[in-house]
Amino acid sequence: MNLLLRILLVVWIFGYVLVSCVPLFNGNAVVAGVGLLAGVVFVIPWLIGVLILGILVWLTNPTRPR
Asked: What does 3-21 look like in DSSP terms, one character per residue?
């Protein structure tokens, strides 16, 4: 379960960055503007998702024997 949550966290982080920033590099100003606006609007839910997934990864981390 921990591995699945870690993969989901990586996809969540990079997915947001790709969706909101890639149109800026493609040269399409209209799509870039919409992507940038969507990035600004969805930054708070994205941060909440990162926080929740990070906590779940931490909680499901297997304990290591000493």
From this structure: HHHHHHHHHHHHHHHHHHH
